[in-house]
Amino acid sequence: MTDTTAPAAPENRAAAPSRRALIGWGGAGLALGAAAAGGAVAVARAGDGTDPGADGSGGAVAFHGAHQAGIATPVQDRLHFAAFDVKTGDRAEFVRLMKDWTAAARRMTGGLAVGEGAYGGLAEAPPDDTGEALGLKPSRLTLTIGFGPSLFEKFGLAGRRPEALVELPAFPGDNLDRTRTGGDLCVQACADDPQVAVHAIRNLARIGFGKVAIRWSQLGFGKTSSTTPDAQTPRNLMGFKDGTRNIAGTETDRLEKHVWVGESDGGGSAAWMAGGSYLVARRIRMTVETWDRASLQEQEDVFGRDKGEGAPVGKAKEHDEPFLKAMKPDAHVRLAHPDSNDGVTILRRGYSFTDGTDGLGRLDAGLFFLAYQRDVRKGFIPLQRRLAAHDALNEYIQHVGSAVFAVPPGVRDQHDWWGRTLLTEEA
Questions:
Q1: In which domain, by residue range, is 234 found?
Q2: Which residues contact 269 (CB under 8 A, 6 or more apart)?
Q3: Which residues contact 287 (CB under 8 A, 6 or more apart)?
Q4: Which of the ends of the chain has fewer CB neighbours closer than 10 A, N or C?
Q5: Distance between CA atoms of 115 and 16, rounded to whole angstroms?
Q6: Domain for residue 70, yes or no?
């Protein structure tokens, strides 16, 4: 990230009070003030949460907008996803944390250091920024926050829990690890540089120390989905393209229909979610050693695509309209296609992962599946029920981690903050 603590940028120092009064970025007033003064690059408006100017060159994605960035935004190459447990029972303290997190996110997505930076300040106090992103570009960093069902058991929020924020049912074949499941909060950090993504989660965890604690986290590489029109669909660790009909960030009509929560969705208790979305995160283990011994024909039959081009059975190109009846009845594409599910459509934003071994000489590898939708009850749940019961792919995968979150609308301007519509009566 750009170093904003050097002598050449004194205006950023002037924007923040001394750490004697703050002791490491603990005050909401500082957080908002510093971002307003130094974060101009990060606060450009982006009504759909995307920034057409932020491409693979390492530029900044706009932080402000009607929707949070990191959903319809062009998918970056790397992920650090973290779920948190809330440790404080003080609502005012939690609100202060949300304001501090928002201000830190605003600066980091703009390529700026948190607070006064990683060096040059009071020697007797911890730096405001951990420093490992010094000199790095913004790398299209996006930070997206979500609130889990368990959060609504705290702070008197039970009456504001949306009806669509349901606990996921147990699906056939699930083998969920409780240490990789659930969470009061989540933050999804996506960037083209893995160090930038890790830096962002690390600093938010540091700022929240004592108020929140990381429950579990997941690193991801190799995006497996695209939200960019006409782009080639990336391959998963099985070597196949999947989700070629993913919603593009420019398809505003499909986003409104399938992803963004409407003002009338869920009645008064969920009015604060208008412009937001619902996220399902699933850690899907792939038994790659078994898969790698399957014949090419079997692999292609399982997916309903050819492995070389990614085209549906009997077609020439990956984006050709599939003829579902030409596929085997249990082919993944046939079962997952909207035409087989009464039009159910989700926005996919998954990543591959490898996390060492399972202790039995096999890779712990697979897909960290991220899906955004307007209503989990009408999106992921009916789709996964069908897949869990019939998908031929189930022989080679297992769902081992799971969580669901309500993702609030975007931060409108430099005075707004994550969760304001939930945590205050102001709309």
A1: 76-89+135-427
A2: 159, 160, 161, 162, 163
A3: 362, 396, 397, 398
A4: C
A5: 7
A6: no
SS3 351: strand
Whether 348 and 246 have beta carbons less than 8 Å apart is answered as yes
Q: How far apart are CA 411 and CA 404, in angstroms?
A: 21
First to last CA, the chain: 34
- Distance of alpha carbon 266 from the chain centroid: 23
Residue 415 CB partners (closer than 8 Å, separation 6+): 32
Judge contact between 279 and 186, C-beta under 8 A: yes
Q: CA–CA separation, 274 vs 409, rounded Å?
A: 6
Residue 86, CA distances (Å) to 23, 91, 151, 210, 215 in order: 21, 11, 8, 9, 9
In the numeric block, the tokens 């070597």 are attached to: 239
Collect all residues with Cβ–Cβ distance below 8 Å to 224 and sequence separation of at least 6.
234, 235, 236, 242, 243, 348, 350, 351, 352, 367
- pLDDT (tens digit, 0 to 9) for every residue of the chain, 427 residues total? 544 433 333 333 333 333 433 434 443 333 333 333 333 333 333 444 444 444 556 899 999 999 999 999 999 999 999 999 999 999 999 999 999 999 999 999 999 999 999 999 999 999 999 999 999 999 999 999 999 999 999 999 999 999 999 999 999 999 999 999 999 999 999 999 999 999 999 999 999 999 999 999 999 999 998 898 777 889 999 999 998 889 999 999 999 999 999 998 877 778 999 999 999 999 999 999 999 999 999 999 999 999 999 999 999 999 899 999 999 999 999 999 999 999 999 999 999 999 999 999 999 999 999 999 999 999 999 999 999 999 999 999 999 999 999 999 999 999 999 999 999 965 4
Domain count, the chain: 1
- Could you tell me if residue 245 is inside a domain? yes
DSSP H or E stretch at residue 36: helix 28-38
Token pair for 147? 């609130």
Q: Is residue 97 part of a domain?
A: no
CA distance 218 to 351: 10
- DSSP code, position 74: P
Beta strands in 263-344 (DSSP E): 277-286
- Radius of gyration of the chain from its Cα atoms, rounded to whole angstroms: 22
Residue ranges of alpha helices (H) inside 235-281 are 252-258
